[in-house]
Write a structure and sequence with these properties.
With about 400 residues, this protein is of the alpha+beta class. It folds into two domains: about 160 residues, no CATH class; about 190 residues, no CATH class. It is built from eleven helices and ten strands. Strands 1, 2, 3, 4, 5, 6, 7, 8, 9 and 10 form a ten-stranded mixed beta sheet that branches. Strand 6 and strand 7 form a beta hairpin. The protein is elongated, with a radius of gyration of 29 Å. About 40% of the residues are buried. About 5% of the residues have low confidence.
């Protein structure tokens, strides 16, 4: 009979409690990593849906996905006059609150941009310049419902899937005219509070959220202008031409992803990595303590095995197999816990098969390393100790 299995059967309750503790720690560690992946996936999803070639942003900034930006609405018309530009559309984003829920408002440059890129699951895209809205399904609206924003009502004509801002808020798409009017209605005090909140969230020294001017809500400006190049146009030449205006900066679309990951999400990545490492260290300590305790309780049995002529590899196998059993069972239970808990999180948790394999491999390495202390103590046991 396998000695490790026999010992586990004799201590079933303690083994189950140990496995549960390890599973909870692993669930926490994998949940932290999955949460970061989910935040990145949501943020990049919005950026990639708005695919374009160049972002024209406020001079001296990198764009709205790394820091606040504002440009005059006339920049769109100026961009359309540049050789090599096929299309240009204003991008406008602000915040609002509906029935105590924060949401992000996206101004679609209708009719130049009808929001055809929005990931609709129901309904249709915007077909009018006023009074229509497309919302994320997390906001709980249905096709035909009416949403009250500011002094106006907006009819819900489309429901989108995972239409979420980089800050995790559900989004609503309005025509640019509606979004500008909504922003201009906001009291200066409300705008100032929103500025301060966004600045704290971004860790930025700037205090102006995308789409608003520094002097309050009454003189809203575009967040950026998205420029699509004509076939065969030289991106570098077009970008250089626009930069020469002096009041704006031009950022390639691909660079926005880098700015987003290294800027707004950089600090979050460092924090999550720190907590994940801490949880794995705690797991290592817990498993080490349990395996060492189990070994100490079996010193008399180990001495008897040595007296009967058992080889060291038999004793080593007993300890290592118990540690691996704890790790494997903990990993399986953690997967079940994750499958039940992660869908309940308010933010998306993304765990790839590669992530799961990595966490499992780390846990097995921890269990093997944790058994080293117990093995060291067991190897020092002498056969004559059975008589003690």
């Amino acid at each position: 009979m396998n000695l490790a299995i026999r010992d586990i059967r004799q201590n079933t309750v303690r083994f189950a409690l140990t496995v549960t503790g390890v599973a909870l720690l692993l669930t926490g560690a994998s949940g932290m990593g999955g949460l970061y992946r989910g935040v990145v996936d949501d943020a990049l999803r919005q950026l990639r849906l708005m695919k374009t070639d160049l972002w024209v942003v406020e001079g001296g900034t990198s764009g709205p996905f790394s820091e606040p930006s504002k440009v005059p609405f006339e920049v769109r018309d100026r961009a359309l006059g540049v050789a090599g530009v096929a299309n240009a559309r204003s991008y406008f984003e602000s915040s609002a609150m509906v029935q105590g829920t924060n949401l992000a408002v996206l101004g679609v440059d209708w009719p130049n941009d009808r929001g055809d890129w929005l990931p609709l699951t129901q309904g249709r895209h915007l077909a009018a310049g006023r009074g229509e809205a497309v919302v994320d399904r997390s906001l709980g609206y249905a096709i035909g419902d009416t949403m009250r924003l500011g002094r106006d009502d907006y009819q819900i004509v489309g429901i989108a899937d995972r239409f979420i801002s980089s800050m995790g808020d559900g989004m609503i798409a309005l025509s640019l005219a509606d979004a500008r009017e909504l922003q201009s209605e906001r009291p200066v005090a409300e705008v100032r509070d929103a500025n301060a909140k966004r600045a704290r969230a971004d860790g930025s020294l700037r205090t102006t959220p995308p789409g608003t001017s520094r002097d309050g809500g009454g003189s809203a400006m575009a967040t950026a202008v998205l420029v699509d190049l004509a076939p065969g146009a030289d991106q570098a030449v077009v970008a250089r031409t626009i930069r020469q205006w002096g009041d704006v900066n031009v950022v390639p679309h691909e660079a926005q992803e880098t700015f987003l990951l290294d800027g707004r999400l950089g600090r979050l990545r460092a924090q999550i990595l720190t907590f994940t490492v801490l949880l794995f260290l705690i797991t290592a300590l817990v498993v080490t303590l349990i395996v060492y305790t189990l070994t100490m309780e079996k010193l008399h049995t180990i001495a008897m095995l040595k007296l009967l002529g058992a080889r060291d590899r038999v004793i080593l196998g007993l300890i290592v197999q118990q540690a691996l059993a704890i790790g494997i069972a903990g990993f399986v239970v953690a997967q079940v816990m994750g499958a039940l808990l992660f869908p309940l999180f308010p933010r998306t948790v993304v765990l790839t098969p590669g992530d799961r394999a990595t966490y499992g491999a780390v846990l097995l390495v921890i269990c093997i390393a944790a058994s080293a202390l117990g093995i060291s103590r067991a190897m020092r046991v002498e056969a004559q100790e059975v008589l003690a």
